[in-house]
Structures are given as C-alpha cells and as structure tokens.
Amino acid sequence: MSAFQFDLVAMPQEAEDARSDIRAFLEDELKKKRFEPHLCTWSSFDPEFSKRLGQAGFIGMTWPAEHGGKNASMLTRFVITEELLAAGSPCGAHWIADRQSGPQILRHGSPRAKAEILPRIVAGECYFGIGMSEPGAGSDLAAVKTRATKVDGGWSISGQKIWTTNAHLVNYMIVLARTGDAGPSRHEGLTQFIVDMSSDGVTPRGITDLAGNHEFNEVFFDECFVPDDMVVGEVGEGWSLVTGELAFERSTPDRFLTDYQLFRALVDRIGPEPDRGQAVQIGEMVAELASLRRMSISISGMLDRGDQPVVQAAMVKDLGTAFERSVPEIARVMVAVEPTRQTDDPFVEAMAETVLRAPSFTLRGGTREILKSMIARGLDLR
C-alpha cells in the first residue's frame, strides 16, 4: 500500500507579517463600509474590491516579480486566503484566476499569454472561469466531449460546459477539450485552451440556484476560434495539466471555510457558557476545523516544494466539504430557529443562506465519489 502524509509545516515570518497586513487592509475596508461581510464570500463578485486588493499587492503574490508578483510562498498566500474568507470579503471576481488559472498560465502558458494576462490578474482586473465539467460527464473529466479541431492559426472549439461559476462575468475561461483519440485510459487526446469569453461563438446561459442566485452557468461553444498561442502547455497534455491544476483548486481553505460565517454565528449564539452537550459539539467542530487547516497548510508547503499533491488535495476537499455540509445540520439541532432570509438576526440569516447553498458544497470541484476513487487509487486500494 502506498502511504502519504501531511507533514507539520511552520508558518514563516513573512506569512505572519502578511497576516497583519491583510487584517489592516480588511479593517480599513470595513471601516469605510466598502463591503458588508458575505455569508458565502468566495462566490461573491465585486470587481472594485478585487481591484483594491490587487493594488494592495494581495493577488498573484506567489508569482515572480516580472509578472507582477512578490515571489511569496504558498504559505503566505494561504494566510491571505483564510483571512479573506474569515472576514467575509467579496472575493469571487479574482478568486479562480488567483487560485488556479494564473498559476496554470504561469507554468504552462505561452509568452504572449503570460505577458498579456498575468499582470492584469495581479492588478485585480482580469477574471477567469473553469471550463471542465460537462452535462453527462460531471466530475468524470475523461468523458468530456467538447472538441477542438485544428484550423489555420489556431483551433475551433465546439461543445458545452456546465456549472461554470460567473461565466457571464469573467474575461477568460480555461477550457478542457478533446483534440485526439482518448486511448485505452481515456486520458489521451485532451488539451487545455485559454478562451476569451468575448469571442464569437461563446454563449453563457445562466443557471439559478436554490438561493435565487445566478452564479452557475452553462456555456456553449459554436466553432469558437482560439489562437495557437492560447493553448496551455502542449497539445495532448491536458489530462496531466488539469489534474495538477486540481491540486490548487481542491486544497485551499475555501474547501472548509465556505460557511465559516454560520459557524461563527453559531458560537456567538451559544455564548460563553454552553451546556455540556453544546461544549462537546462545538469542541468537536473546532478540532475538525483545526485538523483540516493543518492538512491544507501542509499541502501549501508541498506546493512550495514543487510537488503535485493531487491525492492529498482530494482528501482535503472530500473531508473539508463534508465538514461544510455538517455545519448547518449541527446548527439546526443546537439552535431551534426557522431559517429565513427576511430577518435582522445574523444567525438566522446565515442559517437560511447556508441551508440553500449546502447541497453544492460536496459537488463543486469534484463529487465525493470521484474523490474517494482518486484517494483509493493513490493508496493502491484499487
């Protein structure tokens, strides 16, 4: 059996300094009433906040200075991320670009893509969507049917993607498309493309969720042209690139802090003198949250070393989103209230919003079934 572990990682001083800096930035933002803390922070789309965050140097900070970054560690970025989430800041505009699309372009993009796109991401002025999932394929990325055909000077893409967060608002999407035969493994013949969302042949259509929000989209591609220098990596390398990208997507604190506002409101509602049962339940939740945080920090350390902790990231995502799903269920048992969005009670409002969003927590970024399969393969159990 193959073993993997999550080594204890100490936060460097630069990360602790960054924590002080981002807290000061957020305190100033709140003092000036530039945003109200959001109940689901990373899916809130606020370009003006992202621009201010970029101007303060908190986006793309792990990237080289030549692309606008600060050469900071992934551990420093972890600190910035968890502070943004804990504050309920509206991060949705720049989130995907900073978390995974930018690093993917930095490692595998063409000189043109790096020069034109990365500085705009760092400035908080360029936003990305994820073009992976498809109807009938879901988390089984090897089953994608969107096809890219070689044409003069580039590629013509036709097909459909689904559950693409903020596709109607972003500038670009990295699209996984089939460019050749799947082969016995079904992993061959896949390629990633940087698609300009203003291109001819791209049509987003909104999907309204249970909370009444339009964040998800279907996106249709009808012979959309993509230049050769907007291919990510080499043609046919899509599977290895997309699995590496998922290590960034699945391991970050947004996989266990999505409903942190409800958790905090629950602790406030219980108060400083819980009964024995409440103390035990809150203690268990804090212990689980602390464990997830340690695992996620460990993965940041692996990424700093240049590793690709795909299986470890899948485990954090599986356990983290399961924790997120449990928070509203535990809160409903501990505090008997009727969830409603028409209230001045922060706990009741947080409960209502989270109950509506919770079904998506274990679906986005890969279903639990797919993640468990990946973990089993990583442990040589299948």
Biggest beta sheet summary: 4 strands, mixed
CATH top level of the largest domain is Mainly Alpha
- Provide the β-strand percentage band: 5-15%
Q: What is the name of the CATH superfamily of the largest domain?
A: Butyryl-CoA Dehydrogenase, subunit A, domain 3
For the record, the count of structural domains works out to 3
The secondary-structure class comes to alpha+beta
**Alpha-carbon Rg, integer:** 21 Å
End-to-end gap: 10 Å
Low-pLDDT segments: none
Tally of DSSP β-strands: 8
Q: What this model shows, in words?
A:
The model has no long low-confidence stretch (mean pLDDT 91). The chain has helices spanning 13-31, 47-55, 74-86, 95-108, 111-122, 238-251, 260-270, 276-304, 310-334, 346-357, 368-378, and strands at residues 128-131, 147-151, 154-162, 172-178, 190-196, 202-208, 214-227, 231-232. With 382 residues, it is α+β, with helices and mostly antiparallel strands. Helix 4 (95-108) packs antiparallel against helix 5 (111-122), helix 6 (238-251) runs parallel beside helix 9 and helix 7 runs parallel beside helix 9. The strands form 2 sheets. Strands 1-4-5-8 form a 4-stranded mixed sheet, covered by helices on one side. A 4-stranded antiparallel sheet has the order 2-3-7-6, with no helix packed on it. The chain has 3 domains: 13-126, Orthogonal Bundle (Butyryl-Coa Dehydrogenase, subunit A, domain 1), CATH 1.10.540.10; 130-236, Butyryl-CoA Dehydrogenase, subunit A, domain 2 (Beta Barrel), CATH 2.40.110; 252-378, Butyryl-CoA Dehydrogenase, subunit A, domain 3, CATH 1.20.140. Helix content is 44%, strand content 14%.
